[in-house]
Amino acid sequence: EIKLEVESDDRKTYYLKIHAPWEVLGTFADVLKIKVPFKASDIPKAREGSLNWLTRPFRLPPDIMSSEPDYFTAPFDKRKADFFLIKDQETFFPPSTRNRIVYYILTHCPYYKEDRKEKDKTGIKRLLSNSTYTSAYPLHDVRAAFLKSSDQTLCESERYHLYKHWARFLCFYKEQPLNLIRKYYGEKIGIYFAWLGFYTEMLFFAAVVGVICFVYGLLSYDDNITSKEICDPTIGGKIVMCPLCDKKCSYWKLNSTCLSSWQAHLFDNEGTVFFAIFMGIWVTLFLEFWKRRQARLEYEWDLVHFEEEQQQLQMRPEFELKCTNKRLNPITQEMEPYLPLTSKCARFFVSGATVLFWTCLIVACIMGVIAYRLAVYAAFARLMKDSPTSKIQLVGSLINPQLATSVTASCINFVIILILNFLYEHVNKLTTKMFMFQFVNYYSSCFYVAFFKGKFVGYPGKYTYMFGSHLRNEECAPGGCLIELTTQLVIVMVGKQLLWLHFNSGRSHPEGQYSRWEQDHDLQSFSQFGLFYEYLEMVIQFGFITLFVASFPLAPLLALFNNILEVRLDAWKFTTQFRRPVAAKARNIGAWNEILNVVAILSVVTNAFIMAFTSDMIPRLVYLYAYHPGEEATMAGYINNSLSVYEISDLRVNNRPDEEENPAWFNANITTCRYRDYRYPPGHHRQYTHTMQFWHILAAKMAFIIIMEHVVFVVKFFVAWLIPDVPSEVKARIKRERHLVQEYLHTYEVEKLKMQMSQSFCVTSETTSLLPSTPDKLDVLSERT
């Protein structure tokens, strides 16, 4: 049913209202095999536990959480309409199902004349692309003005309830009304918010453990002998370090890194090892418990056998028109379009070449950032040597060449990430390829700091240079590169969230006396890739809190705060800023599930390597248990043990600082400098080659990686085996429903057959009672004959 409206303020915009009556809804519900209730559920709900009162403050009213009783469902059959629980035809199909059916009809409806063969003229999408229509959207069930109204008689709508109990930030501690979200927006959006809410709940436990580890670092501050030695004027103040760059970098004293060594201890301590192992187990629990939660939603939302109807419902008509090749589907015995192998290979080649080009572009940008790091360090060192900022109390010690280089390089890297994201998102939308691009784009700089910086430096007199240039490879600070990796993570995560908040600020819409469809038209359109970017953002965040969490235990806490805000802000956007999207079904989170599994496995490897090669934990443990002086295990003397000696006179001319760069305290009496490595001192018959301690530490690092990976993977696989993907209660309900559907359909058919037979018997009996007159007539006729 179609009605034309001309009610716009400009008198130029025409609105075509489309309504599907019961006959149309019933017909296409039959075609699409949409499940509808046929019997109230007889399975009792689980009883509340004795401790459930603890969760009552976080619950929503029962009528909001479960607006309808539980039903057993079966695919709709219009011929058996009396089999289903149809109390009111107007409300039998929920709004999400109604607009989904209408959109299915619109996407498959041709608009060419019967005598012409322009079969590509099909569907509303083509009419939108050629600007015949400017937009097509389902209507919200109430005007936006009513959302803040106090008149309960006007505001008893699903949109109002979603706004009141879901979209307001004051409800941040409440559970989400998932059934109402599903009913209003459809299963695809509902499953996204279910996953996001579950992910946020699990982040709470990771955040608590991360805070405990951070607090442990704070409380063990005074027991950090290594930092005390660095800051001690009689130890770190007398250790002269070799220049960190050629020509423009001077000799420096170890105690100048006092503050950074204390900062590094907050994140590089014994608790970090425990937290890395815990996160390896946490990510397994998260994925396994989500599978159970997802299985429960699949049953409750009638998505258990969704694949069959998905092909019919989501088959794109434009794909059917472009594909001239067809083949017989062995299941449905119907001809369906398909792409031949040659076309698939060609598309795969083009797609792969595109991804390879963008990946190479990212690598080139990262190499540029690395070159920036190497080039500007000397400049910062020269500028800050006599800078007035170095005299500032408290702040002066924070401003040093290492920090300046790290922060500016991280900011430049973040800008590059944003630019490349903007360019690539206009090229490709495919989930896996887009994530591969984002993976390289977001994480490449973190991988460089974690696994490459400071690993290929060489030593004084034989430094390594970037691709044979004059740019010397970067060194880590005496405390390691872990604090710089932490800085990188903080800048990217915080910067990303600040930018997200800026771009997600809402628009105000006038609430004049104009129609609801005009108000909805003024809202933002929710594109078909809207949920794609929501998932992508969360999965990238998931990577940050799992791949590099060993360097920053507070990452889950930042992610938790972000997600609490994200849920309510997304809810607010859906209810007030976006047009109502077309409802779509989805059984699960799709390809993102596999991506999360891959990230989870990779996170175990990355965290093991971070603890082994980026953290200073293993060298300290080796010193504590194998190389400490005296009989008592102590960390005293570790700094002197971890620094090798180099004869200044052996330095090459191009490695030596210019005379004007040397500090005032440097004189000819200083003949040696120290550098971070384990090499024999000058004068030794194997001078400047690695000591046995270096090989012992390397062996300990490899052993730690193997042990940590095996322990975490064994626990992961044991937990995955121990926790079934589908709860036993859900399995029982599925079997019960399958049995009831067969039983009730059989009973229904038998009763219907009995009724038909009884009606037929009545008609036959009435006919039989009239038959005696006929034989008499026949006898008379025969006698006459």
From TrEMBL:
Membrane association type: Multi-pass membrane protein
TM helices/strands, residue ranges: 192-219, 271-290, 348-375, 403-423, 435-452, 539-561, 595-614, 702-723
Ranges for domain Anoctamin dimerisation: 3-178
Source taxon at top rank: Eukaryota
This protein's UniProt keywords: Cell membrane, Glycoprotein, Membrane, Transmembrane, Transmembrane helix
GO molecular function: chloride channel activity; protein dimerization activity
Start and end residues of each Anoctamin transmembrane domain: 181-737
GO cellular component, one term: plasma membrane
Keyword Transcription carried by entry: no
Location of this chain's protein in the cell: Cell membrane; Membrane
Family note: Belongs to the anoctamin family.
Listed name of the protein: Anoctamin
